[in-house]
Amino acid sequence: MICTSIDTLKKYLPTVINSEYEKYEAEVKDANRWFQREIVGDSLYAVIIEEPDELTEDWQKLLELSEAVVARKAYLEGIPSFDLVETSGGFVVTRNENQVPASPERVRKLEESMKNRLTDSVEDLLTFLEETDFYWTEWKGSPTYSLLTDTYIHSLREFRKYAPYPGSRIDYMNARPAMLAVIKLRIENVISSDLSDEIIEQLRDDMVSDENEEIIENLKYAYANFVIGNIDVGNSLMYREKK
Question: What is the pTM of this model?
Answer without folding.
Answer: 0.81
